[in-house]
Each structure stands twice: as C-alpha cells, then as structure tokens.
Amino acid sequence: MSTRLSNSGRLLNKGRAMNFTFNGKRMSGFEGDTLASALLANDQMLVGRSFKYHRPRGIVASGAEEPNALFNMGEGSKFEPNQRATTTELFDGCKLGSQNHWPSLEFDVGAVNNKLGRFLTAGFYYKMFMHPRPLWKHVYEPIIRQSAGLGKAPKDRDADKYEHFYAYTDVAVVGGGVAGLQAALVAAKTGARVLVMEQTAHWGGRAPVDGGTVNGEPVDKFVDQIVSELETMSNVTIRTRMMGSGVYDHGYLLGYERVNDHQPEAKGPRHRLWRIRAGQIITATGAIERPISFAGNDIPGVMLASAVRDYAVNYGVSVGDRTVVVTNNDDAYRTAIALKNLGLDVPAIIDARSGGAGALGDEARALGIRVENGKGIAKVKGYKRVEGVAICSQAGEGAVLEEIACDAVAMSGGWSPVVHLWSHCGGKLYWDEAQAHFRPDVDKAPTGAAGEAFVIVAGSANGYLDLAAGLADADAAGKAAAKAVGKKVAKSDVPAAEATDEAASEAIWLMPQGANIKLRMKSWLDYQNDVKVSDIQLAAREGFESVEHAKRYTTLGMATDQGKLSNINGLAILSDALNQPIPQTGTTTFRPPYTPISMGAIAGEARGEIFQPIRKTPIHSWNEENGADFEPVGAWRRPYTYLRDGEDRHSAVIREIDQTRSSMGLLDASTLGKLIVKGPDAGKFLDMMYTNMMSTLKPGRCRYGLMCNENGFLMDDGVVARIDDDTFLCHTTTGGAENIHGHMEEWLQTEWWDLKVYVANVTEQFAQIAVVGPNGRKAMEKLTEDDISAEGLPFMAFKDITLAGISARAYRISFSGELSYEIAVPASQGRALWDALLEAGAEFNVMPYGTEGLHVMRAEKGFIMIGDETDGTVIPQDLNMQWAISKKKEDYLGKRAQERSYMTDPTRWKLVGLETTDGSVLSEGAYAVAPGENANGQRNVQGRVTSTYYSPTLKRGIAMGLLLNGPDRMGEVVDFPRVDGTSVLAKVVDPIFYDKDGEKQNV
Amino acid sequence: MSNPVSALQGAAYDGYVKVEELGLRGMITVRGNLASTKLKNAVKAATGAAMPKQRQISIADEGAVAWMSPDELLLLVSYDKVNEVIAAFEEAMAGQHFLAVNVSDARAMFRLSGDKVREVIAKISPVDMAQDEFNTGDFRRTRMAQIPAAFWMADEQTVEIICFRSVADYAYGLLKDAAEPGGEIGIFG
C-alpha cells in the first residue's frame, strides 16, 4: 500500500494539514502536496478507469506527462474537468471526482470491455460502426457517447477571472531547472532583459531529487543561490507556476501562469496568459522518462521510476512497501537507492541490459539490493493493484523464471528530451542511437524573419542528461542567447558539477523482446487512449505505415496528454513492425499548447460586460431608459423600436410611423458615418469616389451620392454636403464609416498620392438627430431665431444655426419622405438637444422612432438601403439609378467594370416595387419562380425580394425586389412560393409607394 | 448654451491603481506636412508645444501635441478654446494644404494613477511598458483589448488615455477589470 513516510518530504509544510475529498471520501494532505501525492498518501492507488476498456488505472508519473490521474474538480461555477493531479497543488477544501467510470470507480460496468478486448482492437470503431448507416446516428453514437469521454462538461458559467499580459524581453527562458537557471543567469549578467518561467511551484527541476554536487556543494544549495541571485537583478523577471505553453513565429511565446489555482479563494485572476515577445527563447524544458512495454504495465502501482523517487523524496510518500525496479538505464537505480535509504524494501532491480549498470549498480548492491541483469518482466500480477511480478529473460519470449511479490513497480525505459517547444515553430530533431531518443538538431532551429535562429535549447532538453554536461550546455545557451540579442558576453567558468560514471542505456521497446501476442495485448503504450503494442502492430499490418496515419488509426498520442509517455515507444514499435529504422518513421507533429490550458485564459478579460465593445451614442442612455428594443448595427446598438407598455414590436413600429408622418418624430441618427474630405483636389477626388458629380456641388448644398468599388458593385451611399470650396462632409451608412474611411485612404495613399486631399473620420464628433414630420419645423422654430423656413433653409441645403442654445448644423435632407432636418451638434451636447426637442415637440406628441420605422418609411418612398437592395453583386443600373451616374465624367471607381458585357446584360434583374394581391407581407428574401426546372432539378427563378414590410401608411404589405426585365413588366403578377408550399402573388409596381412627386419633403 | 458633458461624466474607480474618466479636453486632428516650418509654427502657436518626434508627445503648459502618423498630429488644448485655436491655426496656415478638425467630442479620456500603472496598461495593450522603453514623452497609438486607444505618461505614476467616445463604457470596464485588486503582477520596478 502507498502511505506517508515520516522522514522525508522536502516540499511539504507538515505544519499545515489540508482536507479534501475524493469521490466524496474525506482525505487529508499537507501544504505543498500535489493532488497526486496527497491521494497516494491516503493509499488511493486507483484513480480512474481507462477510456476504452475501463481498466483500473493508477498514477504513473509525477509531472505534466501524467496520463491517468485526471479529475473532475470543484463544483458549480468552479467546476472543471480533466485537472491533472500531478500538476495541481492541493488546497484546503478541494473536491475531486474520478472520471470515466459508471456507476462507481470501484465497480465499473464498462470493465466488461476489458474482457472483450480481443475484439476492441485498433480501428474497431471505424470497422464496426460503418454499416448499416442509420444505426450510427440512432444506436451506436448515443451509446458510445454515453460510455466515452473523460471529464464532464461544466454546466455553470465560470466564476473565476482571467487576464492577459503583454511582456517583452530579450531572452525568455522556459524551464526553471538547473539548466534554465544557469542559462538565465549568464544571459542576465550581460545586461539582457531575461524572463524565466517554471511550470511548477519550485525551482531546480529534477536536480534536487536526483542529487549531485555543483561547485562542491549539494545541487539544491546551488539552485537556492542562483535563484536568489536572479531575484536581486533588476533586469530579470522570474515566475513559478508559469508554463511555456507554445512557441510561435517571430519570437512570440505564450506563458500560462496559474496565479491562484493553489489558493482558489484568493482575489485576482485564476490564470494569466502571458503574450511574450522575446528576442531569443531558451527551451530548458528537461526530459521525460519513458515507460517500458510489458504485460500489465498499466496496473495501479506500476509507475515511472523517477515518479516513485519524486513521491518519496519531495512528498514523503511511498508508493509501496516492496518496490521492484525495472530498467534499461542507470538512472532508475537512484530510485532503488533512495527507497532503500528511506527504509523501504526493494526486492530486486530487474535490468534488461545484460551488462548491467555502472557505479550506481555497485552502490545498490552494497545496500544489499538484488540486481538481475539481462532480465525482464514477463507480466505484472494483480488487477486493481500490483501483487507481484513474473520475471523472465529479456532475450526470450516470456517463460517465467520466478515470481517476486511486491506492491509497486518502478519502471524506466530511458529518457526523452522534452522537445515540444523546440519543435512548435519548426525546430528539427535527430535520432540519437546511443541514447535512444530524439533530440534537437541545433543546426536546424526555428528561424525568424531574417532567417536567424530564435530558439536555443539547453540542458537535458538538448539530450545532455547528466548534470555536468547539462550545466555546460545551458551555460553556452545563455551566452549564445545574450550574444544573439546584441549583448557583449564576458568569459566565465561553467559551474563545476561532478560527472557520474553511468553505463550506457539500451533501447528496450518490448519486454521481453519476443513477447507473444497474449503479452503484447496487455502491454500498454498509451494509457489514456488505451493503445497497446498489438494495436500498433495491427495498424502497420493493415497498411497504416505513415506515423501520422498510424496515430490517427489507433489514436496513439491523441488524448489530452498528447502522447508524452507513449509517442516514442509507439513509433519504435511501428518502426519495428515496418522493419525500418526509427528516424525513417519519424515523429508526429508537436503542436502547442504543451499541456492543455484553460479556455478562460485564452479568452482573458473578454467576458461579461467587456466581452466585446458596444458603441453607444450620446443618446444611448435615454434610449435605454425609454423602452428601446435594441438591434446591433455594426458595433452600435440602435433602437429597433421604442416599446411602450403592453406593446409588441409590430404595433410600436406602426405607432412611431403614424406619428411621424402625421406630426413629428425624432431619430437618433448619430451613428451615421461622417467623413471630412478636404483639400484643393477634394472635388476631383470625390468625383472618382462617387458615381455622380460632386465637384459641381455648391457650398451650402447637399447631394445624394452612390459609391461603387472598382468592380462596379455598390458599396455605400449617403448625402454629401459641401462645407466650403475645399471641404466636403460625406455621410456614409452606419456600418460603412470605418470601411469607407479606409477605402478613401487606400486610394489616396496607394493610387492617387499626388492628389492634395486629407480625410478625417468625425463620425463620433457629432450627435445627429433627425427631426421628421410636418410639425418638425414648428417645434424647431421654438428653439431658434435663425431662419429655417422653406426659403431660408431649402430642401437639400444646410445651414449653421443656434438651436436650443447649441451651435448646430441643420441639413434639410430626408430619408423618410417627410419634411426633415438632420441636426448635427457636438456629441457632448447631443443629449441636451434631444431633451430640448422632446420638450419643444411635446405639443405635437413627438416621439422617437427606431431603425424599423426608418426602414419602413424609406421603403414606402422607394429609397434603397445598402445591404438590403445591395448584397455586393448589385450595380446602380440594377436599381434603375442611372440618374445618379454622371455621364459627363471621364471616370469614377466602377465605371469601367459597369461597361463589361455581364454588367450591361439586359437580363440582369432590376428593381421594382411589389404589391401582394392579398395585402399580406412577402417573406424576406423570397424568390419569384419561373416555369421549368434548372439542371439540378430546382425551380427556375426570375427574381427575389430585397426589402419587405408592412406599410402602416398604405395599410398593406409592400416590398422591393429584383426581377428579370422588371421595369418592363409593370402590372404583371409574379408568384412567390412560401416554405409551407403555398404561394403569394404580387403585382409588379413602381417602387415609390408614397408621395411620388416628393412634395412632402420639399415644403 | 447647455453644459457639454463627457461620456461618463467623471466616473472613477479605486482599484490597485485609480481609474478616472476625465472631463472634456479640446482635441484637434491636424493633417499636413509635418516637416513644414509653417505647420511647426502654427502648432507651437496653438499649443505652446514643439513638434513631437515619431511616437512621442510634446507637452507644454497650455497644450500638447501628439504624433499620430507621418502626416497626422493630435493637438490637445482647453475644451473651451478649440474653436478659436482652430480659427487661428487656419489663418496661420492659409494657402497651405492641411486639415485641422475638431474631434474633442469624439473622444473620451481616462487617467490611471498609482505606482503600478505600467502593468495595468500592459494587461490590455501590446506595448512594452518597461521604464527603459516607455517614459514621459513617449506616446503610443495602439489598442486596448478590442478598441483603438492612445496613451502617454504624464509622470511615472500617471497614464493618460484617449479612446473613442462611443466605447467609453467598454474602456472604463476594461480598465477597472485590469486594475482590480488581486491582479497585481509586480513586474515593473
């Protein structure tokens, strides 16, 4: 059984106990524990069920590579699935639940899959559930979804806070082990700005556990010294609990800081995502130990040798009383020695190498540990826990020589450098035959814009597994990084570490070497996705020879651990099955993030009230307080209508229109785009921008204009006012302001840079209020002494006046067909004017109208709307707007395109008005059908509805649409089928339904 | 004449740095040839400040000038005086090709104050806020999270920010969120 030791635990504060629950069971640990060490201290070996076969699974590792110990954590708004026990610090009150079991962890129905394992091989799902097709949707998928999946999805909104942080540094160091610290120190000493991040809460990485001396002192003293030195340097930032998550182009690095995971009740963000721009990135990311593939290597109690050692030394936890060590290298001997020194029993070290170990082997023997060279584990005995191991000859096929009773197995299949961050942005790897791992090819680093390397790898991440070589490599990396960012590097000595005398490891991909199929079917490669040696071999036999194909077919390495333990073993097995060397098989692609990061960290501050910017006019708060039913228009929120008590949208819109047409209405038109175009060539420029002539406009007058892109299609419209000889004010649509501003700048900067024109976007400078309706003038006259009569301010003119004591510019323009003034005042006084107009208009029962009223009134007048009548494929000629296209001008944007044969095709659909014969309202976007069918067997069409409304003025449905030969078919009736199979008939009419002569707006 | 009001009418929040919406400030967008002596003189006459260098702001007693682009400046003057300043500017620049337009009402201004203003900015703007990289006199036209913004440091403990008026609410929410106690990073100084 696993238990707490009294005489060790360097990371624990045994003075502070912490309580937590696991599947409802109360347990306790200490401050400094990870969830994994706390569970082991409470003898909780079984932590979950495997994904496919529901086999009992225990903790395998002690770090980011852990595949099994993933938990549902917390409750309600603090619930999060897939929390990795080995990298999550224990906190008081933590609530854990195991995943992927039903009905309980101890008794799991799905474990019957284990008995069916013979049938549930690689590709089983692909093969089995293909046919018959309908069964997938209705039978297979629901059942598989029920039984599959790891964590539960959170149901409540996340209660925590997250944020981003933009950081800049010369050198960013990922990894706070001895290599990272040494590299950081030498780089910092040159004066470079250095940022060091360590994913755990502690500095030093593996070194304090693995031991050794630096400069004659124990390595943990060296770590303390170097950290305190870095802490005093003003050019250095060091952060723990921060993982280098991904390396991207141009020295961009993401750092994932878990600010408050260890103290969830603290104020502040839970996670902070650092968006770092670094001159050079040093990846001192260490190495990960590999499991060995032998039968039963997934039984709880079988663990990586380094993890067994970590739990004993760091957390004072023994995984078992009797631990058998199985290895292909010397490092695992350290585990045996550490356990023995803590008074625990190590019945044997099973060393697969016939030559055995170096000095560490002698040390182990001297402690009285039995060492068996050239041997392997035939199989592990037990189901929910290790009960013993059967020993065989590594060279054989698994004939059992002896059984050894034990309750834990510490395995080591060698070490793989963590090359992930090196590889994210294109760093290449090579296969080191002697050490049997992929390591960075330092001559093929990720490169920046000028082809320069921007990532440097250091220490065991670079394949230098022993302390002395690792420190030397890191020292060189730090110096190289400083030099690359332009710093002068002084000569300095590398800290002297004691070299160790270790025998070479031997590549062991399967144990025993000739394991039969029964053993291979119980030899796990990928714990999380339940992929075994036999699955990879099957994939190879079935032709999945590319490593990327084999990966996807078997799901090897596709789980949340992304194959940190399984990938190398898996591709070694694949290479063997394909009878080719490992480098020829290659690796799958390493992609960020290194381990999963929270969705909250990615979103950062963008949630709730500040999820996205909402633009508000100066009148917005009045709108909010007065029943505005908002709709988004660009990033603005505009009132669709203003609801009064008991009203629905429809009746509110009718009320607003009736009131406006009969007396007086107000519109908050502040969102309209307003661009100032100024300069001696402004007229010439606008003649190019608009289809009609603007240069002939007289100061003080307004003209409606159309704007097309260079392909001839309509992109915007609006009223242009000439302020003076050199200055125009161009109104754009609400959504078009920024876009048209950019469009104008584009042409001015890239094509017509010789034109003397400046453009400024003054949209937000002005609040703009439309005063609309026959009584509007009367109301305004109460507020001004200026002459705003038909003569003093005629239609399509503007005038600077003082209105309600505010300097205003009044434009006599109308989008409703009524007498209308659009009043522009400084935004800061917009609300004051609005209030004054409401008061002045009270006797006329003034009320504001929303965007729907605006739309209906303009449709009654046959005015087009960009985005309704146009969709990016419509030209002015389609809308019968030849009157707005100057024939005198030599050129304007879109002119040439509009002369193309396709654009001049007489069969292009053209704008008409539509009146339903029954008075009903046509559906949005409805098509008019024509006889016959097209090549796809669909009804032929001859037109479509572009705008359709109920007109309160005409008391019937009105619409505009584009129709084949439309203007020539006045009076004809066309057929608009509806979705329900019925049809609506509509008569083709003039699109101007109301006040055809325009008398009302011109009074 | 009604009293002009700023977007948030002086809203303030005491976080680990203080966030305040400032009242109205006179702002004039100027476009023209920044190398021209006439323009330099007109700018100086309008604000009392000299022509700023690229990505800088030049501050005098009665006004300031910020560099916005190779042919654009932002003049900061008293809100009451904008119209007269523009009129004088136009007179001084008569005959030149330029643009001077009042944008005072199109903007909102905020001030951050406290000893950790640098890191609050760095949470929402992609700008290197280290002392050696950004100081009084520096000016950035950049973004704050999802909106355009510009800022400078009035002194070591004070950042002044300009954004569009329509998104003042968002900007204020963003700054409050970044300044919320518990979010201290402690990275600059």
Describe what you observe in this structure:
The complex is a heterodimer of chains A (1003) and B (189). With 1003 residues, chain A is of the alpha+beta class. Chain A has seven domains: 3-113, Ubiquitin-like (UB roll) (Roll); 162-287 and 417-484, FAD/NAD(P)-binding domain, CATH 3.50.50.60; 291-413, FAD/NAD(P)-binding domain (3-Layer(bba) Sandwich), CATH 3.50.50; 517-584, Arc Repressor Mutant, subunit A; 621-671 and 765-857, 2-Layer Sandwich (Gyrase A, domain 2), CATH 3.30.1360; 673-764, Aminomethyltransferase beta-barrel domains (Alpha-Beta Plaits); 906-989, Beta Barrel (Elongation Factor Tu (Ef-tu), domain 3), CATH 2.40.30.110. In chain A, 23% of the residues lie in helices and 28% in strands. Chain A is built from 27 helices and 51 strands. In chain A, strands 9, 10, 13, 14, 15, 16 and 30 form a seven-stranded mixed β-sheet that branches. In chain A, strands 42-43-44-41-35-45 form a six-stranded mixed β-sheet. In chain A, strand 33 (628-633) and strand 34 form a beta hairpin. The N and C termini of chain A lie far apart (96 Å). The mean pLDDT of chain A is 94. Chain B has helices at residues 37-47, 82-92, 117-124, 168-178, and strands at 12-14, 18-22, 26-31, 57-59, 64-69, 72-77, 99-102, 107-113, 139-144, 147-155, 158-164. By secondary structure, chain B is of the alpha+beta class. The N and C termini of chain B lie far apart (48 Å). Chain B is 22% helix and 33% strand. In chain B, helix 1 (37-47) packs antiparallel against helix 2 (82-92). Chain B has two domains: 12-23 and 106-178, Probable tRNA modification gtpase trme, domain 1 (Gyrase A, domain 2, 2-Layer Sandwich); 26-105, Heterotetrameric sarcosine oxidase (Alpha-Beta Plaits). The interface between A and B is large, with 53 and 53 residues. Chain B: InterPro entries: SoxG, TrmE/GcvT-like. Chain B: This is Sarcosine oxidase, gamma subunit family. Chain A: Residues 170-421 form the FAD/NAD(P)-binding domain. Chain A: InterPro entries: 2Fe-2S-bd_N (IPR042204), FAD/NAD-bd_sf (IPR036188), FAD/NAD-binding_dom (IPR023753), GcvT/YgfZ/DmdA (IPR028896), GcvT/YgfZ_C (IPR029043), GcvT_C (IPR013977), GCVT_N (IPR006222), Sarcosine_oxidase_asu (IPR006277).
